[in-house]
Amino acid sequence: MNAYEILSALETVDDRYIEDAKGCGPSEDVAGNKTHRRLKLRKRVLLLAAVLTAILALCGFGIFERGLWGGWLQQPDNDPTQTVRSAIENQIDKEYTLHIRFESSEIDQAETERVAAMYAGSELAQSRGWTDDYLAEHFVVVRARYYVEYDHTKTWLDDGEIDQYFYLTQNLKTGAWVIVDNTTHGEPLSRSS
Amino acid sequence: MEDHQIIDLFWGRDQRAITETASKYGTYCYSIARNILSSPGDAEESVNDTYLGAWNSIPPHRPAVLRTFLGKITRRVSLNRWRDSVRDKRGGGETALALEELKDCAPSGGTVEEAVLAEELGRSLNRFVAGLPETERRVFLRRYWYLDSIESISLDLGFSVSKVKSMLHRTRGRLRDHLQREGMI
Predict the structure, then answer these.
(1) Which of A74, A95, A127, B147 is 20 to 30 Å apart from A167, CA to CA?
(2) CA dist., res. A109 & res. A188, Å (int)
(3) What is the percent of chain A where pLDDT is above 70?
């Protein structure tokens, strides 16, 4: 008996063992397994990327929903000024807010027209699905004033009286107004003592 | 197409059996042939011979697992072709390396009558393979059934090359002991 006979006789090995060995991944690639390994590696990378994307998306959605990381903890209302009010008052739930006092919120018609005209026909409006007609009817700018104090170990925002614009669009199905943007926090009108 | 439908085509002597087989298992058979034979042309011929072999053996056979049935034919045809090519000084590749590795398991020529030996040897090897731990069995068959290179085994199974070599070395030692115990060598 020689090695060749052993090699030949291995042909009779039970099918299930042959299948099992094959199932754990020998190459079917004609060029010598490299493409097969690359495909496997690519699959693993894509799978990892998909998992990471899903995790990030979930985290991002959670953060957005909770209004963390600069977002607003808004409660969309059919009155846009009430949506803004809820967003301001709910800022107290953010870990860096020590105190907040809502003072006023009102639709600023002039600013609404100016900003709507600015958005009209823009790429940004297109990307958000805002037609000119939609902007004319379902977009408002609300001007709000409030007083706030922050924990400065956690945020760079200044304390004091804040005068800020909020941009809202209306959900056509529910009629509720949602904050989609706002002017930067900016310089407070008056600083707290 | 499902395997049983392909087998039915063979039984019905329908030549579409060959095209369906080639479509479904051509790459699989070629990969086995290519591991054994260094020449792509020889490998292609072996695959064609595999289809012919299947055509000639189905019927009367009705293989339970068409894939391994074809794989076995390809392997046999390719090994025969490899042996012929060695005679013509054209051989080499993984088969030569695998044979060199297995030489220690069968150090000398025997006196047992060949036909009996082949049959007994097959049964003995089956017992040996069945008794191997799962990982060792996979590595062993990847190397000596599929004739995959050690590097590709290590990459596919996530082991280092040295670990695969070491595993194969131990398994060959066990094979030698097994064959000695069973009076095969």
Answers:
(1) A95
(2) 23
(3) 73
A22 interaction partners in chain B (CB closer than 8 Å): 67, 71, 146
Q: Where does the pLDDT of residue A50 fall: very low under 50, low under 70, confident under 90, or very high at 90 and above?
A: confident
Which class would CATH give B3-90? mainly alpha
Please choose, from the candidates A79, A70, A68, A80, the residue with its C-alpha nearest in 3D space to the C-alpha of residue A179. A80
What ipTM was estimated for this complex? 0.75
Same domain, A94 and A45: no
Domain ranges, residue A26 = 20-66
Interface list for A 1-40 with B (CB within 8 A): 1-15, 17-22, 24-30, 32-33, 36-37, 40
| Separation CA A24–CA B163 (nearest Å) | 17
Bond into B133 cis (ω within 30): no
Q: What is the per-residue pLDDT for A95?
A: 85
Q: Is this model's pTM higher than 0.80 or not?
A: no
